[in-house]
Structure formats: C-alpha cells, structure tokens
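The instructor's notes for this session suggest beginning with a concrete chain rather than abstract definitions. Hand out the sequence below and ask the class to guess, before any prediction is shown, which regions might be ordered.
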Amino acid sequence: MADEDQPKKRTFRKFSYRGIDLDKLLDMSNQDLMELFRARQRRKFSRGIKRAPITLLKKLRKSKRETSYGEKPEAVKTHLRNMVIVPEMIGSVVGVYNGKQFINVEIKPEMIGHYLAEFSITYKPIKHGRAGMAGKGAFIPLKEPSGIRDGAQGLPESVEVGNRG
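After discussion, reveal the predicted structure:
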C-alpha cells in the first residue's frame, strides 16, 4: 500500500542516435561517427574538416569548461551555418548568424547530424492580412498621405480634370 501513496517516479527516455546510446557516441572517433551520418554529412566529413569548425569546437569546449555545474555555458557566436552538429557540442549554446543577428541555439541530443542553419531561420514568417476581407478589395491605408485632403488629389487649381473634347 505504500506504493500507492507515492507518485510514480518519472523515467526519462534514454537518447540514442541510430541505435547507439549518447555515451557511446561521445566516445566515438570522427571516422566511426561519420559512418553513422547521412550521405550529405558523410561527404562533408570525408572531404576534410577545415580550420573554422575546429576553432568553433575549441571555443565551445572552453565555454563549457568555464561554467559551473548546472548552468548554461556562455553563447559562442559563429557564422558557420553549414556546421554539422556532433555529439561533442551537446549542452553548448551557439549564436548562429542569420544574416542580421545572432540567434542563440541550445544544442540538444536530437540535433545530432543536422546543420546549425536549420535552427536559425533567415526570414521573418509572413503574417497575412486581416481575416474576413474575402477579396472584397477594401484597401485600408496605413495613414493618410500628406498633401491629399478632402478629395483635392494634390492637383493645382488651374488644371482641370475631365474631358478634353
């Protein structure tokens, strides 16, 4: 009866990427990890890891090392939108440039194998006009343009509008 009084303890689902636990992913070499990724990411890794992604990983390690336990690390800003997220980056905060500003992205295990760009949208989603207009053509101006008042249409008084015949 003691079991009924206490609420059931929550068990968290253990994350695995393509059937491999997160702990094993962290211990894998780049070559073994590359074989798990999809074709596009495999090709990127097989062509060699350049200097910029390695520098980003070093900065992420440093920011993680300098934070105390239980706190989020400081964001590391980058323009590398084409960087593939690897298990080593999990728990870090990356400021990904979207062309105008840096969007902070907290790296989670589910993001492994994706690109940083996928989490930093480059456009502002449109918000459509007011509902209920249904093509009535009722234009609602934002504000009254200067110079046009009371139907004067901004024309000089000497110009006559009408037939010229």
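Then share the key points. The chain has a mean pLDDT of 84. The helical segments are 2-5, 22-27, 30-36, 39-46, 51-65.
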